[in-house]
Structures are given as C-alpha cells and as structure tokens.
Amino acid sequence: MTTNLTRDEAQSRTQVLDVSTYTVDIDVSNAETGAPTYLSRTVVEFTARTECRTFIDLIADSVTFAEINDETLDPAEVFDGARVGLPIRTGKNTLTIEAQAYYSTSGEGLHRFTDPADGKVYLYTQYEPTDARRVFANFDQPDLKAEFIFNVTAPEHFQVLSNRPETSRGPSQETSQGPVDMDSPAITHHFAPTLRQPSYITCITAGPYEGATDHWTDPSTGEVVQLGAWTRASLVDHLDASDIFSITKAGLDFFSSEFDYPYPWGKYDQIFVPEYNLGAMENPGLVTFTDSLIFRDKVTDANYESRANVILHEMAHMWFGDLVTMKWWDDLWLKESFADYMGGLALAEATRFTDGWVTFALRRKAWAYTQDLYPTTHPIVADIPDVEAAKLNFDGITYAKGASVLKQLVAFVGREAFFAGSRLYFKRFDYRNTELADFLECLAEAAPDRDIASWAGAWLGTSGVSELSLELTTSNDASSSARGSGRASITSAKITQADSARGAELLRPHTLEIATLGRKGRKLVPIDSFSFDFSTQSAEVEQLAGRTLGDITLVNYSDHDYARVRLDPASTDAAIRSVSRIADPLSRALVWSALENAVRDGLLPVQRYLTAYARSLGKESHAGIMAGLSQTALTCLDQWVSARNFETAITGLLGAALDALATARSGSDAQLHLANLVLALTSRTARCFGASAAIAMGRSFASQILAVPVGEEIDHLTSSAPPEPVGSGTSGSGTSETGASGAGSDAPDHAAANLPFKGLLNDHALRWNALTALVCLGWADQTDIARENQSDPSSSGRLHAETASAAMPLPIVKIRAWEVINEAAALSNDVLTAIISGFVAPTSMPLIENYVDEYFSRLAGFWADNSIEIARRLVLGLYPRWSVDEETAVEKTDAWLAAHSDAPAALRRLLIERRDDLARAIYLKSTQNSRH
Length: 932
Fold this sequence. Notes:
By secondary structure, the chain is α+β, with helices and mostly antiparallel strands. Helix content is 39%, strand content 21%.
C-alpha cells in the first residue's frame, strides 16, 4: 500500500479520464457514539479515452461494496487500504464504492472533536492536498475537476453545511447503524451540485454549530450573496460576527471590482473549527478557519489584523485557486502566492488596517527569508514529484516569498497591467486548470513593453534570497557625528546584489526605492527618496551623488522588492540608537528586519540587537511590530545567546519589559503585549541560578496574576516575595499576592515595583501563561493545574493544562509525557502539540537529555506509523535543539541522515532544516564572549 500519490501517476490518469459527477452519501449519524468509522458511499460518473486499468483514491478501514459498470468487484482483491483498482472501458463509466471511513483526530479527512466545555461533538473536513480520499472515494488530484453532490445524514440537532446551499432535508429511514432510533432520529441533508471544482476544496461540517447570518449585494450585478459565520456553541458569545462580516463585505467589494469577475460560488459561509491544522482553507462557499481566530480573551490589534488578513487571503482564493486551479502542485504558488499578496493588498486598501503591509514586511517576509536560507530552498515554481512533497511545500517560499515577488512584479509591470493580466486570466481559464505559462501569457498581453519571460526566469525559476548592500563614499569620513549634520555629502554610491546564503552571484532585475532618513525634531523622517532599477551585479546610484548624508540610508524603502538589505555600518549604528524614532512604521519595520537579518548571519552581535530591542520597549506602539520584535528577541534567548551570557541577557530584557509595563497606557495594546512578554521571559528564568530584582519581580508578577480573579483589574506591580515549594497549591485563584517569586524577601526592589498600574484586566490567557511560568520554575504543581483547569474547562484550558502538566520539572513527569507522546495515534493533533510543548519547556536541570538518542531511534517510526501531519509535529516538536550538547545533536543528525539516505524526502527535508537551525545557533554562540 502507498498513500503517496506521484505526479506521474496523476498525469497518467489525466491523460485517460474526464470526470463528470460525484454523488457522495456520508452517514455520520453515529458521530456521538464514539464509533471509529462511518459509512461513505460514492457514485462517480466519468469518461475514459481508452480501455485500461486505473485506480481511484480511498483511505478507509474497509470497502464493503465496489461496482464498475454493473460489474461487482471483490474488495479483497481491488482495495489495498489506499487505492481501489479498476478496469475501465472506453467511453462512459459508472463506479460505485461503499466504505467504512475513519473519523479523524489528526485534522486530516473528517475530524471529530468533543468539546470539553460541554461535551458536544463537532465534525469538519480538511483535505488539502489529498485527504478527500480519507472521506470518500475520488480521483484526488487538482486537475480532474468535477461536479459534486453531497447528501449527509447526521443527528437531528446537528447543523450541517457544505459548499453549496441545502436544497432539502428529511428524516432518514435507515442509517449506518441500521433502522432509525425514533428517540434520536437522524436527518439527511441534500445539497445543490457544486460548480466544477477539484476534490481538495470540497467540504462538509456537522455539529451543533451556532452563529450569525448577513448578506452582501454585488454593486455591479445586484446579486445577493448570503453570508454566514459559525463556531462551536461554547465560543459563540465571542464570535464577533459584526467585525467578521465587515471585513468580508469589504473584501467582496474589493475583489469583485478589481478582478472584474463577480463572486462565482453563490453563498459565503465562514466556519471556525477546533484543532485545525491550518490558519484556514478556501473551500468555495464554506471557508474553514481555525477557531483560535475567535478571541475569548483580550488580544491586541495585531490579532484582529491577522484575522482580517486570513479572511481576505482565503477570499482571494475564490478566484486564484478555486475558479482557476493549478494542474499539479508544482504550481501551488499560482494560488498561494497570489492569495498572500492579494490578501495583503485588500487589507491595506479596503479595511481599517491601512498599514497592513507593515506586519508583512517584518513578520511574513522573515518567514520567507528563513526558509530561503535553508539548504532545502527551492524556486517559487518548485519541483513537486509527489503529494508528500506538496504537503511540505506550503512553506515560507510558496506563501511569503511568492507574495513578495508579486509585489516586485507589480512594481515592474505597473499595477494596471498586473490587474489587466489577472482579469484576462480569469476570463480565459475559469473553471479550468493552468500552468505558469498560462498566467505569464496573459500578463505579457497586458504589459507588452515588459520582458515577462526573462523576469519570470530570474525570479520564479531560481532559488535563494537576494542580498542588497549599498556602499557610500562621502566628502569626509562620515563619522556618526557627521551623519545628518549637513557637514557630509555623498560623493558616490554603489549598490550590489548577491545570494544571501552563499555570497555568490544571483542576478535578478530589481525595481525599488531608496530613501535617506534624517532628523526632524525627535523623529527620523525621509529627507528624500527616489525609484531605482538595476539588474546587474552592481550599479552606480547616481541619484545619491551630491546629496546630504542622513542618519540612515534605506534600500528598498516602501518594500516593493524581495531582498535582505544590509545597512551600511553608520546606518546600523544609527538604527541601534534610534530605530524607535523612525516615524513611518513601514520604514521602522524594514530597519528592524535588516537588523534581524544581520543578527541571524552573525554580522551584528546578538546583545547589540537585544539592547536595541530593550530600548524600544514602551516606545513602540505598532502592535504588529511589537509582536514581530518579541518573537525575534525570544528566538535570540532560546537559540542564539550563549549559556554564559543568558542570565545577563534575560535579566536586562525582563527589567526593561517591567519598566515599560509599569508605565504603559492603561488598557493599551502595549500594556497587554508587555504583560505577556514579562510572563514569557519569566518562564525562561528557570535556567537562571542567580537572583536579581528583575527576575524576582517577574516571578512575583506571575503570582500576582493568579491572585486576581478573571475579569478583575491587576492594579499594581508588586515587589519580590519568597517562593513557595512544589506542591504548595498556592497558585490557584485564591493565592496570596506574596506567592512564588524566585528570590528571597531580601531581594532588592526593582525600579518598577509598587508603581500605580491600571487597566490590565485579568483573563484566562494571562492566568494560564502565569501558571505555566510558575510550573516551569517548580513553584506550582498538578493541584494548581487541576484547579485552574476546573475554572477554565474549555478546549483552550485543556490544552494549557496539558502543556503545564508536561512542563513540571520532575523526571517522572518527563518519563510519562514521553510515553504518552509515543502513543501519538491515540491523541488529537493539538493535544499532542500541547504535550510536546510542555515536555521541552525550560527547566533548571537538563531533565530530557536522555531522550536525544530516543528521538533518533524512533525517528523512522514517527514517520512510518503516523499520518504526515502527526509525523511532522513529532519530528519538528521533539527535535533536540533543547539539548545542552548541541554539537552532539548535530553529529547525531548527520549520522542519521547518512544512515538513512533512502528515507522519505519529506522527512529528510524536515530534519535538514532543523539541523541548519541548530548549526546556526552553535555558530552564533561561538562568536560571543562574556562581555557581549
């Protein structure tokens, strides 16, 4: 049996088959009984160009009936667990297959979830790239589009949705369990046929979902589109449907106008589901989202912006990906890169998040840069030989690099030409499948004065990230005291491009802007800027000659290009001192991005970056920048700061965060962000052996949060207090303010201690973050965790409890967690990840060092014995970057790779990338001394 469909196999079927219609009957009337399987029945109408044998995809427990053209097939002979072999004839064929398919807990196929808050059962499907075959028999590849008719039998109280509207419903006389129990009747829901679409974007949801409805009217056609927003009953009070509908309507207005093609899929339901592996999925008419986008606790504006971006990303897919679909996963970028770019564009131009490109510049592109520096980097148009490779290519290159390169393409051809080419593409290829050449042909027709083919070869067919550096010659030594003073002027400037990873030549055409930032009062603002094009290895920037040297010379101002920018030395020094003074948030994000890349490459000492970050705390007001910077700072602490410098680094950051928190505006995004940052840093002080005022106060702050009930205000920051031992049970809701602190009562007060502090309302998220920090320190135990979980029995509370329980710094706890992890098939996807997070959480002693060898001995089994999603979580989550002997971990990785050259390519790729991260960490630590 093989579940890994190859490109060659898919192409062979495409050459033979045209699929007309699937009629799919799914019976989930037993969903609430705990039954492991459900009845799936598929009737497929298709045409064959020749008589031959082929196969249809189906991963199921068993096939109970199979018939082709009135010829009954023996399931024992034709079904191998992943495929049903078929004899087909020239012309029309009718295939019927009945199977018992598995309910899933991995988020692949038909996922079943029982809400711990109320015991209610929920179902939803997730298929991309090829998991529709886990629910019903189909030719599971994107270029065999068809019409799908779904009939779903479910318990009477279930809300059932699919891609198209329901046409009728009625009592079911017979279910998979036999005759209907009249005390708990089942209802069969019949849905209208879909338009022609691939199998991977069909969808079914079923359960006691609740929500809201609205409508949108297309201003050009007058067509009314029904809107729905749905989630679990336990979350519906937090649904915020008005905000979701507002973003949805703005997006539909934007895309239908810009694409000059009306929304084609009828209704527009959006459902937020539990334990979801992705951010969202673009099923036409029924878009699925992770329900982590339903905010039960207070979040910053960055979270609302992120949700809006995801909504618009998925909406863009209604045209890019659903209406016009790639033939095979090689051209995955034809939908994902476009949706990422279009989602960002709509966010900035059609919603209240007018500075949406700021977060993209700092966070989204950081993902692309990281992915593009790995040894496993690939061109945007990638070689995808099979569906395992496709699964892993939903990465930073396909999404964020592709979107960044599309920004560059728009700068290259002009916005009007780009949209004209897109409109032509939709009209020419609607409901069909395409390749790269098809889109480029449309774009070339819209921009005949541009060499689209050469541009595509340079940007889409090559791998690696461009690195741009600017060499300035000035009228004097251009010391930092002279920059911006008017005494120095630029006499010449040269820009150079290279491959950032290898330092080799990487020639691409670049259309960008260059700006000089100088002082205006206390702010840094653009003195001047200009557009610049070049495609050679280096070029003179004549526009800069004769201009006054500012504080910072910023290449890729406005962020139209995809390139890692190297600031010149004087600009770097100015940025370290004054980056928070840059008035424009996009320019600020770009400078921070340049500093982060310099740290990652060992060109800027980690401590200098952390110093700049500490200075920004309390000054940065953009929620997206705050989130991006804290992520990088925590990466520095977790991976790049040497052990001998760790305590100094975390003490400095924690002190700065506490000072900023004490003075943050009441109820602001900054206040909430800083409170969570303090807790994240406090959990990491488990690695500290000394006492400091900042560490003591951070630990005291965690205890104070647990002393304040949910919904009440945390009204001041307290100074240090004596610690409580493990098992004291003092961190429940009745804990004294003088709980665990990690330092004796004689520890010196921190500067922020006992300052007035208003506006921070306690909630479950803050309490769980505080409790987990205390658990890592050994100052809270299972009694405390159970008490907190009892007060928060939600699914989120359950996951937090799993993490906290596995984080307890006791050998027996780690032993038990490892045993549970190794029975991953018995866990849901999110529960597995929660336990792994606790297992690898910071501790004062290396309690899991013995599991390095265990990891490598079980690695092959992780992959072979689990679905690819669960295997990926095991391989990535348990990789021993936490080892105190990092060099040995790298050596063991190399040894495993050498001994398993025939291991699945997808597994090897994951391991090579984690090894690269660890090797980078070793290098960066080796560059530090005790003074850094």
